[in-house]
């Protein structure tokens, strides 16, 4: 029998929305080179590799088609969804993941899953012409995070209309750059788009880890703690963001679209 591998649309309310993630369930530890090859074969923004530990918690690693990453929201949501769906965990049980980004948890909230992630700190910096030119926008505010830059622009219309120069953006330090504005839709507070060409993802459809920056940023701008967020990629996806001290709770839905076996 091969290794179970599942494709899940995360931060999605319907199939073919949100961000597709691979979830590979490991019976034993596998070498990083093998996991990298599987992620390249899946050719999704991230593939999660999940292995149950003796204490009932799980080891979790994430790979893009090009490299391993330190933090990933949508593939964590996908992994928890699969564990509940195939009953490695009961729906009332908390999924506990040990990752390069620390210990993360996921719990069911009806049809939604709530992830407990670290808040990502940032520092205000001056707008940079090369960054603005690469993104094709005029910045209202720019902050720097451990991942790259977060840029606030004038309106949601600007966010939606962006057509960045990806080759130029690839030359700017940082693995992920976020552009955001207040929402133009009544059901959402903020909108964003996320570009990560340096790690092989030109535009990420819906990015949980980006909202670990967006939540604290918009709390500083508005004084609020809870935000309904929409990532305005071609697929699009909704994330509820709740800032709680040095943690951010991310809520979203997920659907399985493909289930199979991996034989190598």
Q: Which band does the percent of strand residues land in?
A: 35-45%
Gross morphology = globular
| CATH architecture identity of the largest domain | Roll
Average of pLDDT? 96
Give a structural overview.
- With 264 residues, the protein is an alpha+beta fold.
- It folds into two domains: 3-114 and 251-262, Diaminopimelate Epimerase, Chain A, domain 1, CATH 3.10.310; 123-245, Diaminopimelate Epimerase, Chain A, domain 1, CATH 3.10.310.
- Helix content is 22%, strand content 41%.
- It has six helices and 18 strands.
- The protein has helices at 32-42, 73-85, 129-135, 156-161, 166-170, 208-222; strands at 3-10, 19-26, 46-52, 58-63, 68-69, 95-99, 102-109, 112-118, 123-125, 141-144, 149-152, 177-182, 190-196, 201-204, 226-231, 237-244, 247-252, 254-262.
- It has an 18-stranded mixed beta sheet that branches.
- A hairpin with a 5-residue loop joins strand 3 and strand 4.
- The chain is globular and about 55 Å long.
- The termini are close together.
- The model has no long low-confidence stretch (mean pLDDT 96).
